[in-house]
Specification:
With 211 residues, the chain is α+β, with helices and mostly antiparallel strands. The chain has two domains: 55 residues, no CATH class; 128 residues, no CATH class. 29% of the residues lie in helices and 14% in strands. It is built from seven helices and seven strands. Strand 1 and strand 2 form a beta hairpin. The longest helix is centred in the middle third of the chain and has 14 residues. It starts with a strand and ends in a 19-residue tail after the last strand.
C-alpha cells in the first residue's frame, strides 16, 4: 500500500496526507507505471492508514506478482563473444559494480549477497544477451536477483520492458531508469542509470604524472 503518488502537473511526489490536504479532487499517478491510483481512506479496522493503491488488473512491476515475470527472462539470442567481454569487464571491476549496487541499497549490501547476485546472473545467463553494455550490468544484476529480503527491497525496470535487451536496443522508448520498491509499502524510488564504472579516456593522459 504505497503512501506516495506522483502529481502530473507539479512533477513531484506527495505523501498521502499532503495529497488529501492539497489535491483532494485530483488524480494521483503511480511514479513507475504512470497509471492512475485509487485512494483508500484510513480505517480503524486493523488500524490501516490512508494509502494509495492500484487497480486489481494493474501491470505495474511494483506489485510482487508482476515482478515475478523477471524471474523467467532469458536471452532470446545468445552472444558468446560479448558475454566473454562482459564477464571480463565485470571481473576487472567487481568492486565498482558492487559499490554501485550497494549504493542503490542504501549502502546495505553484504559480500555474501553480492556473491548470490552473481550466481543468480550465471543461472539466468544475463551475460549472453546480444549487445549487452557494461553500463547496465549492475542494474540487471539488481533486478535479476529478485527480492532482497534483508533490506525489504526489490528493483524493477519500467512496465513496458519485455526483456533486458530492451534497455540498450530501444533506448528512445525505454527510460534510462531503475526503480527500487519497498516490499512493505510498495512505495517506489526512481534512479537514473549512469555510466561511470570505467575510467574515461580523457583521464588516461594524466597517468604519466603518476609514474
Amino acid at each position: 500500500m504505497p503512501f506516495y503518488a506522483y502529481h502530473q502537473t507539479t512533477g513531484m511526489k506527495y505523501h498521502i496526507d499532503d495529497w488529501l490536504r492539497f489535491f483532494p479532487e485530483e488524480f494521483p499517478v503511480c511514479d513507475l507505471c504512470k497509471n492512475i491510483l485509487k485512494i483508500r481512506a484510513k480505517s480503524s479496522v486493523g488500524n490501516v492508514a490512508a494509502h494509495f493503491y492500484h487497480e486489481s488488473n494493474t501491470n505495474c512491476p511494483s506489485i510482487e506478482s508482476n515482478r515475478k515475470r523477471y524471474e523467467g527472462l532469458r536471452p532470446t539470442e545468445r552472444d558468446e563473444y560479448n558475454a566473454h567481454l562482459m564477464k571480463e569487464l565485470t571481473s576487472q571491476h567487481l568492486d565498482k559494480v558492487y559499490l554501485r549496487c550497494k549504493h542503490l541499497l542504501n549502502n546495505n549490501l553484504s559480500y555474501s549477497q553480492y556473491k548470490e547476485m552473481l550466481i543468480a546472473a550465471n543461472k539466468s545467463d544475463i551475460w549472453y544477451y546480444k549487445g549487452l553494455i557494461f553500463k547496465y550490468v549492475p542494474y540487471v544484476l539488481l533486478v535479476n536477483y529478485g527480492v532482497f529480503k534483508e533490506q525489504g527491497k526489490f528493483f524493477v525496470f519500467e512496465s513496458n520492458l519485455n526483456n533486458y535487451d530492451d534497455l540498450w536496443n530501444h533506448q528512445k522508448s525505454i527510460k534510462n531508469r531503475i526503480w527500487r520498491v519497498d516490499t512493505t509499502s510498495n512505495d517506489v524510488e526512481e534512479f537514473t542509470m549512469i555510466d561511470d564504472l570505467i575510467l574515461k579516456d580523457y583521464f588516461f593522459k594524466y597517468r604519466d604524472l603518476l609514474k
